[in-house]
Amino acid sequence: MNIENLRDYCLSLPFSEEKFPFDDETLVFCVGGKIFALVDLGNATRVNLKCEPEQAIMLREAYEGIIPGWHMNKKHWNTVFFDTDVSDKLLLELVLNSYNLVFERLPKRLKETLK
Q1: Which domains does the chain have, with CATH numbers?
Q2: Whole-angstrom Cα distance, residue 86 to residue 81?
Q3: Taking every pair of C-alpha atoms in the chain, what is the biggest distance, in angstroms?
């Protein structure tokens, strides 16, 4: 996986958008104004993704390329490294899972507005 493919996939998800709310280096992907993925462009070898706490722990135990979320709430976020034992297919599944977690927790009125 590389940053261009990841970016293309994130932006292909409905109502997703990219922003730089923190600085010029941290690319953030959002849905409904809520973050579902972050990439440090200065070191574009990993992505932070939201995850259910139980699944986050299982993934960390199963893959060397998945660690607790760097600079994030480690209960709800994982950092997934590119080009490790995490396949591109699994990485995209984790991105979609993160997106879905965030989208489902948006207020009903906002979800209806987006649809």
Answers
A1: 3-114 (3.90.1150.30)
A2: 7
A3: 40
pTM above 0.85, yes or no: yes
Cross-strand bridge partners of residue 31: 16, 34
DSSP 42: G
pLDDT digits over 41-93, tens only? 998 999 999 999 999 999 999 999 999 998 888 899 999 999 999 999 999 99
